[in-house]
Amino acid sequence: MKLKSLIGAALVAGTLLSGTAMTSMVSASPEPSGWDDANDRVVGTGSDTTYNFMQRGEVLYNQANGCDTDNASPAASPATYTLGKCLTGVAQTATTTQGNWDHDVFASTYPTGSGAGITALKNSQVDYARSSRGPKSSGESALNFWAYGKDGLVMVTFGDRTPGNLTTDQIKGIYNCTITDWSSIDGQAAGTIDPVGMNASSGTKAVFDAYLGFDANSGACKKTLTGGAYPFENDVKPLLTDANISVNNGIWWMSAAEYKAFSYKRQTAQSWTVDGKAATAGTIAANTYPITRFIYHVTKKTDATAAAASAEVTGADTGAAGAVRELTEFLCKPAASHIANDYSGKTNYVELTSIYSATGFIRVPAAEQTNGICKLVPGA
């Protein structure tokens, strides 16, 4: 990522500064960048699968080092409210590689599903979107999908059903309603299979549909919750208490990362191998597990973009759009371009590594990276 050479003069006497650790001097926001010396409030929405990761990543970015701020108590009726904003027009100190120069503030709204989040971004109702699916074949040409991690989908059963192995053909048969009894699966006791569907705007459903080659919710054998709604992705709890679904005969699919990381959402679900492969970090990274996917931070192309095979993020220079550009760069920076987190002393890259571990995802493997540690997939 870009390293910004920041040059300035001595501190102005009496200026109130923040306590950020400093190594050089600057008098205004580093350019070229998406920073403009103003704090922006930036909102994202979308995927359930990536919600927890992005919440934690946003907190880390919100804490990242940046400009010295105006910390003087404001007048009762100021013409311009400046408390907490970057000092301008005076020399101030700064590190050579900033984490969040403007001290922009990011927040993820509660999950709505990848498709709903992407639609909201297209409609300019939010500033960026979370997605657990890649771009569709059309209709998303104004967007960039920044893959920052990988995941798999696991097939899960519940209750007394002992997991084994399912082949891709068997999974397709279960979901196209041609395999209807568990006795058709090696080693399984008889029982009518209850294949449960999923919220239609879910990115996890879109990935599973692509794997199957058809809509996983179609067909008379599909189960909904009582009242006709399909459950939201990854949260098993409603399935275990709904009278419309047999606990011992139901089958569903969910994020391998969420299954691994969040036992309360997983409950009694147990995962199966698929085509003889378990969903592990190794099989997902090598694409030897049959159902793998990337997870995405989605931006407008005008806000954040990059040249092919470049680690540089370019785009908007000001406002919330510029802030999105800088968060994108923060997520995609290689290790050497990150600075220390004042709250832990560890670099932001190391702290992000902890977030991957805590949420079950893996970074994009080196062979698949195109922009820093990310894989950029332009929308079509």
Share of helical residues:
10-25%
Query: Hey, roughly how much beta strand do the residues contain?
Result: 15-25%
Count of all domains: 2
SSE pattern, N- to C-terminal: EEHEEHEEEHEHHEHHEEHEEEHHE
> Major β-sheet, in short?
9 strands, mixed
CATH topology tier name of the largest domain: D-Maltodextrin-Binding Protein, domain 2
Query: What's the rounded overall pLDDT mean?
Result: 89
Low-confidence stretches: 1-24
Secondary structure tally: strands:
15
Shape type: elongated
Structural class: alpha/beta
Task: Let me know the CATH homologous superfamily of the largest domain.
Answer: Periplasmic binding protein-like II
Q: Please work out how many helical segments DSSP would assign.
A: 10
> What is the CATH class name of the largest domain?
Alpha Beta
Radius of gyration (Å): 24 Å
The termini sit apart by 26 Å
Reported CATH architecture of the largest domain: 3-Layer(aba) Sandwich
Task: Provide tags for this entry.
disordered N terminus; two-stranded antiparallel sheet; 10 helices; D-Maltodextrin-Binding Protein, domain 2
